[in-house]
């Protein structure tokens, strides 16, 4: 019987299976075992052969209090606890550090060692904490593998930016054990949207000028997709209205793809009343060309001009619906963040607004990380700079809390 333990006020009950890959960050995972056990979790450790080159299995055995598993086809190990029993035993599987190689294997369903076989056999929530050189992290292949894993429901923790063991600087450092521990143990709070329907808009819109050109913005959809995923993990039924992005939507999300602001308006307005919560994370064009030319516009003189018309405000119109969902807007600002956010909160009649700085080095458009200042009628909360998945989980928790409070005071 695993121990019961308390974390952020919630009593949880956890068997944690920690899978360690071969990377210098493997030493940090020893600290992770210690922290998890300190919180009362039962931890078993699986190591790849490469991981054992970095840290001795004895270290993990001593810290976890259980023998370390490393072999898939070993009669002794299979007798003690075979890979299927180990997968069934786990309430959570965390791969930390997760190397580019293991991420690639898991994302493609290869199962040629104990760790990758366990990943395939596990039906519990899976977390990965990548650690690798920054160039390997940014390689399109690695990013595609990460997106595929996310769309399969895997939660990615980090990586962080900073100095690397190879002497380079950038994204690729494994998150700190204390942050990983917090994420793993905070997960049960995530049933806060059980039974609710959440509508999220994400990504940019494209406003065509002619058959080959359009006006758009730098939104990658990462923030909105992370919110859809976090809402799903929180137990909600999720509809995602998405502008054109290079991301795969999480499985189990009803995806509606749109291109223009007018299409996004039509999709969101037709869905909103059937949902309990609407989160407008999309970067919708405020203006679109009055006329879309049928043929490619030809080059003319030294200057040219475009005539634009205002698009309909999706967020404001959702908030006007007779059967309106709890309505959460975003504000993307390059200056006077709070003033503009508070103004949008009031003017658009929103329940909450999440404001972020854009056009800065870190956070906002197309960044892995972001920070939010969240405002509502009589309150505010700052969510510090972190990866967009973690930030989305925090915002979803806050939305659930605020919605509950409003219901109770209505
Ligand atoms: O996609 P990423 O690369 O991850 O970047 C995330 C993000 C920066 C796009 C996201 O965090 C964000 O800030 N989204 C809102 C961007 C935006 O358009 O902000 P705004 O201040 O211009 O608009 C305010 C709100 O009105 C937004 O909720 C927007 O969705 C909504 N709006 C705007 C215009 C319009 N016609 N209809 C709308 O609903």
Could you describe the 3D structure shown?
It is a single chain. The protein is α/β, with parallel strands linked by helices and 410 residues long. The chain folds into 2 domains: 15-189, 3-Layer(aba) Sandwich (Rossmann fold); 197-291 and 302-409, 3-Layer(aba) Sandwich (Rossmann fold), CATH 3.40.50.10300. The chain is built from 15 helices and 21 strands. It has helices at residues 26-38, 51-54, 57-64, 75-81, 83-89, 100-108, 114-121, 134-138, 140-151, 177-186, 222-233, 261-272, 314-320, 337-347, 388-409; strands at 4-7, 10-13, 15-20, 42-47, 92-98, 126-130, 155-156, 160-163, 169-173, 197-202, 207-210, 213-215, 237-242, 253-257, 277-280, 287-289, 308-310, 326-333, 352-357, 369-376, 379-387. The chain has an 8-stranded mixed β-sheet with strand order 14-13-10-15-18-19-20-21, with helices on both faces. α1 (26-38) crosses α10 and α6 (100-108) crosses α9. The radius of gyration is 23 Å and the shape is globular. The two termini are 43 Å apart. The model is unreliable at 1-12 (pLDDT under 50).
